[in-house]
Amino acid sequence: GAQNIFAGSLRRLSPELFDAVLTLEPLQPAAPSNLVLDLPPCPLDARVLDARGADLRNRLNSTDETLWALLLGGDGAGYRYRHQDWRALATLLNRLAAMHGIRWLLVSSRRTGQGAEKLLKSYANGSRIAANCWYPEAAGTSVVADYLGAAEKVFVTEDSMTMLTEAIYSQRPVVSLRPAEARADRRYGAMLQRFSANGWISRHAIAALAADTRPLQAARTARLEVSPLERLAQQLQARLRL
Predict the structure, then answer these.
(1) pTM
(2) Fewer CB in 10 Å around end: N or C, the chain?
(3) Which helix (DSSP H) or strand (DSSP E) does residue 175 occupy?
(4) Which neighbouring-strand residues pair with 204?
(5) φ/ψ bin of 173: left (φ > 0), alpha (ψ from -120 to 50), beta (otherwise)
(6) Helix, strand, coil percentages in the chain from 3-state DSSP, rounded to 5
(7) How far is the C-alpha of 61 from the C-alpha of 183, rounded, in Å?
(8) How far is 167 from 91, CA to CA, in rounded Å?
(9) Contact 202, 219 (CB under 8 A)
(10) Is 239 exposed, middle or buried (0-12, 13-18, 19+ CB in 10 A)?
(11) Confidence band, pLDDT 50/70/90 cuts, at residue 144
């Protein structure tokens, strides 16, 4: 008889089995238990990230330095990265670091691959990288949370909804990057459009931005002022009458 919550696709389960069903799109047919969210649930809170980021800055002796983070994905969700995409990304990292006097925090994922990591290590200016964590060292969320907390701005490749969500939850300005071959399906593309329309992310092609960074300077992002976790707690409290 306990209240229960289901998050994600119900497959063939009935929504009547649950007190709250969390989805990103309305259920069809409609169900009273359905709670439609703007963002997927994510266990990151900006206040916790701030503390972890301050600790990382102390360990790096970077308390007075401007740090930006880059979360790296790879092939998947209709996105395919080629040699020229990774080369352009390294060029972009070097150019932004020189223009803004910042250093990078880089973290890769399983899908990034050793070939892409090797290219970035070869072409990115090592003196402009404050810290990096290459997969499989990057497995888990502990390093990601530290990097997000220490960063003033977050860049993330557009192929991972998990990484995009984590970046938005950090309540930092978020820039999403895509390779030349980017063919998101309808649902994924709709989510990206929603994030962009809300001002939560600024979307850019890697090659275009590497050639001309002015669109990045002109972009305006409306980072979240209220923690999505707090918002979700309020919604569940009302729905479950806690």
Answers:
(1) 0.91
(2) N
(3) strand 174-178
(4) 177
(5) beta
(6) 45, 20, 40
(7) 41
(8) 22
(9) yes
(10) middle
(11) very high
Residue 162 banded pLDDT, cuts 50, 70, 90: very high
In the prediction, which pLDDT does 242 show? 66
58 contacts: CB under 8 Å, gap ≥ 6: none
In sequence order, the 6+-apart residues with CB closer than 8 A to the CB of 221 are: 173, 174, 175, 199, 200, 201, 202
The residues, ordered by sequence, that sit 6+ positions from 123 with a Cβ below 8 Å of its Cβ are 86, 87, 90, 91, 94
By three-state DSSP, how is residue 105 classified?
strand
Tokens 């352009």 belong to residue: 88
Name the token pair of 148: 């997000």
Contact 103, 64 (CB under 8 A): no
User: What's the CA gap between 107 and 163, in Å, rounded?
Assistant: 11
What are the pLDDT digits (tens) for 6-58? 998 898 999 999 999 999 989 999 999 999 998 988 889 888 999 999 999 99
Gap between the Cα atoms of 200 and 164, Å rounded: 10
Spatial distance between the Cα atoms of 45 and 212, rounded to a whole number of angstroms? 34
Angle, alpha carbons 158-184-177 (nearest 5°): 20
Classify residue 209 by burial, with Cβ atoms within 10 Å: 0-12, 13-18, 19+.
Answer: buried
CB 65 within 8 A of CB 103: yes
Asked if residue 136 has pLDDT above 80, the reply is no
Question: Strands (DSSP E) along 41-173, which ranges?
Answer: 67-71, 79-80, 103-107, 129-133, 153-157
